[in-house]
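hi support,

uploading two proteins for the ticket. first:
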Amino acid sequence: MPWNRITKKEVGNLFAEMSKRLLSIGIASIRLDYAGCGDSKACQTKLSFCGEVNDAKKVYQYLYTQDFIDCNNIGILGFSQGARVMAELLKEVHSIKFAISWSGACHDGIGVFKGWFDEYYQEALENGYAKIPMFWRENLLFSKNLQNKTACVSSLKMIFFS
């Protein structure tokens, strides 16, 4: 189950290529776009860390019900923010046999995102989200409803200054 935050097609279609290679050696894989990302029809401004974790749980639960899946050999790969989601999922789902963090963003976000907070917090308060320009991909729309290490929170201020 490979995941990252923005789209299953990110990073030069790396996940599609990896899935093809896994299939060639008899390993099934599933990729997803979180609600609000990539091919998802959900609004990106509603994207939250807790929503990402819930999406991951739903994919795992789906896999677990499939007859062609060996439920004793399910692994997970998280890329970037997906590694953070993976770590949170592993706290609850103990039957996953192995986990791979690929360029993992496993942190609480305070130091890494402080610059974004300083620049975009007011915009998030005024609009309910902040539009953060990315120069190599589509812009990020971050909801003011982000997540700290342990629980969903209702404002960026709680993440960075609590």
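and the second one:
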Amino acid sequence: MSGEFETLLSHSPKKKASRPPLTPWKSLVTFDLIYWLLFLCRDSSEEKMVENFLTEEGIEENKKQKILAIIKGMGFKEEIAGLSKVEYSPEFGVVQDADRLDAIGAIGIARCFTFGGSKKRVLHDPAISPRTCLSKEAYMNKEEQTTVNHFHEKLLKIKDLMKTKAGQRRAEKRHKFMEEFLKEFYDEWDGKA
């Protein structure tokens, strides 16, 4: 699996994704079709769009259901709710790992602060502790979340949720970087640095 994972990760989602060769959709191998679609649509909010596309293209029902099941189970909130604790396909593991790697490390830190700022979240408040033992509902309630707490509530948990060996290796390095960042952040916040 690592070969396909390496290829998938070589296309940064921050750049334009390279298009697959101009091959009729119906002749694509299932594996290629799944990766191409999932690489572009990794959010359950896009599920209906993908379903419509697959139906219009006449994709076989079993292939369509496999793709939609992967999209539906991708999210962190599904995993913490126990909805993804079923056996997963190699395709699911590869795509979910790629998606989660985007959320951690240097780029993940930048994305976290950009998103927090866009939602007018408090940067950090030592009086607001990170939430623990989150249910899906509690995780979705973002009212008392600070941007820095998001590291503890989600981002620092991602390393242990990776499905592939390649994803685990990359997540380990990015996880350490986030820990170093947070140590420096707290030192500066507390006037120690």
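thanks. also noticed: Residues 1-31 have pLDDT under 50 and may be disordered.
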